[in-house]
Amino acid sequence: MFDYKDLYKIYVPEQFGPDEGGGTSNSLDEVFAQLPDDEVKTDWGATQFVIMIPGADKVVKIPFNGEEYCNYEDDYEQELEESGFNYFTMDYCKHAYELYCDAEERGLNRILAEMEYFGKTANGIDIYLQETVEYYDCCEGSSKYFKSEDAHINSKNELEQLRQRSKGTGDDYLWYRFPTEWMVAALHHYGECFMLSFLLWCRDNNLCDFHSGNLGWSKKDGSPVILDWAGYYE
Ligand SMILES: Nc1ncnc2c1ncn2[C@@H]1O[C@H](COP(=O)(O)OP(=O)(O)O)[C@@H](O)[C@H]1O
Ligand SMILES: [Mg+2]
């Protein structure tokens, strides 16, 4: 049986990332070869590699560090490099973890899937664990969350009113940062005051990549949670 302790034995290639189209690459194959493919599932986006042990309450996150995927050659890239910012090697897991700790200090972390530091791979790459989350399904919207249709409709109206009220304040876009149906559930669950504080924190940290693949429902109590908040800088 695959155990979290096996993570200490993994060698992560020096240049670890998907191919240009986001698909498998040689470096991903190198890691797959070290995993028992009948015991774990894997997933990834542009910035992180995720290992899921079926039935386990935590997923494993290992940062990508670029490779082929981030090979842009435009002026913007040059500008970023000249400014010392290097997204080829940016560790988005570390970024997510630091943001998580900051949110925790501010009492804002309950909307983020719980995250913890685990340790290092055999070659010293930091690994993190995150609460396993049930994916947000755009077609289902938040029907799974609401126990009654009245509560759902009330919350929809509340969000609409907030959007109207914030028009012209410069902050109205904040209430559009998440897919509407997920936001309706989040507003109902956490309340306006918490959501506004959280949205302002997102604004201050330039976090905005909240597409449906980065959202979900907590397996503990069904609450709306975010599984990927580190964004993507390009
Ligand atoms: N906590 C989690 N629970 C369940 N699945 C997850 C979790 N975190 C990530 N995943 C799956 O892995 C995919 C990639 O993870 P994500 O953190 O979004 O990486 P990236 O930053 O590369 O987009 C997600 O879209 C989701 O399908
Ligand atoms: Mg993602």
Secondary structural class: alpha+beta
* Beta strand %: 15-25%
Straight-line distance between termini? 39 Å
Widest β-sheet, arrangement of strands: 1-2-3-5-4
Question: What is the radius of gyration?
Answer: 19 Å
Low-confidence stretches: 67-72
Tally the beta strands: 8
What is the residue-averaged pLDDT?
90
Biggest sheet layout: 5 strands, antiparallel
Morphology: elongated
Are any ligands bound, and if so which? adenosine-5'-diphosphate, magnesium ion
Keywords:
binds adenosine-5'-diphosphate, alpha+beta, 2 domains, 3-stranded antiparallel β-sheet
In short:
This protein has 234 residues and is α+β, with helices and mostly antiparallel strands. It has helices at 26-32, 75-82, 92-105, 149-165, 180-204; strands at residues 41-44, 48-52, 58-63, 115-120, 126-131, 133-135, 215-218, 224-226. Strand 4 and strand 5 (126-131) form a beta hairpin.
Record the SSE blueprint.
Elements: H1 26-32, E1 41-44, E2 48-52, E3 58-63, H2 75-82, H3 92-105, E4 115-120, E5 126-131, E6 133-135, H4 149-165, H5 180-204, E7 215-218, E8 224-226
Antiparallel strand pairs: 1-2, 2-3, 3-5, 4-5, 6-7, 7-8
Structural overview:
The chain is of the alpha+beta class. It has two domains: 128 residues, no CATH class; 92 residues, no CATH class. Helix content is 30%, strand content 16%. It contains five helices and eight strands; from the N terminus they run αβββααβββααββ. The strands form two sheets. The chain has a five-stranded antiparallel sheet, covered by helices on one side. The chain has a three-stranded antiparallel sheet with strand order 6-7-8. A hairpin with a 5-residue loop joins strand 2 and strand 3. The chain is elongated. The termini are far apart. About 3% of the residues have low confidence. It binds adenosine-5'-diphosphate and magnesium ion.
